[in-house]
């Protein structure tokens, strides 16, 4: 390794450490605390027979779920197309962000009137 490469590597490590330390104390800089600010969620969905639906049961093997609070609703939408005999599908999504909990109930029924609300927040 040449001397200029070694100096560059040392400077890079020092700047990376400085960024991590400053980011720990200043929330405006994305660093250690940015994962704490991401919302967490849990959900429960069931079909018209009251049987619980697990998102992983409807996925291909080796498929990865990138979590989103809208995932259960998207699964209900997909099941409506592939397994209409399970309609209507009802669900409950709990979202935690900044220490606050928000509960969202939904009912997916594409046969319902167009003016009926599909997603309701509580």
What does it look like?
The protein is α+β, with helices and mostly antiparallel strands and 122 residues long. The chain folds into 2 domains: 1-37, no CATH class; 39-121, no CATH class. The chain has helices at residues 3-25, 71-82; strands at 40-46, 52-53, 89-97, 100-108, 119-121. Strands 2-1-3-4-5 form a 5-stranded antiparallel beta sheet. A hairpin with a 5-residue loop joins strand 1 (40-46) and strand 2 (52-53). The longest helix is centred in the N-terminal third of the chain and has 23 residues, at 3-25. The N and C termini lie far apart (61 Å).
How many domain modules? 2
**Derived structural class:** alpha+beta
The unreliable regions are none
Shape: elongated
Question: Beta-sheet strand percentage?
Answer: 15-25%
Overall strand count: 5
Number of helices: 2
pLDDT average, as an integer? 79
Largest beta sheet: strand ordering: 2-1-3-4-5
Computed CA radius of gyration, to the nearest angstrom: 23 Å
Q: Helical amount among residues, as a percent range?
A: 25-40%
Order of helices and strands: HEEHEEE
The termini sit apart by 61 Å
Question: Which helices and strands occur, and which strands form pairs?
Answer:
Elements: H1 3-25, E1 40-46, E2 52-53, H2 71-82, E3 89-97, E4 100-108, E5 119-121
Antiparallel strand pairs: 1-2, 1-3, 3-4, 4-5
Based on the model shown, name its key terms:
about 120 residues; five-stranded antiparallel sheet; 2 domains; alpha+beta; single chain
Question: What's the quick description here?
Answer:
The protein is 29% helix and 25% strand. It has helices at residues 3-25, 71-82, and strands at 40-46, 52-53, 89-97, 100-108, 119-121. The longest helix is centred in the first third of the chain and has 23 residues, at 3-25.
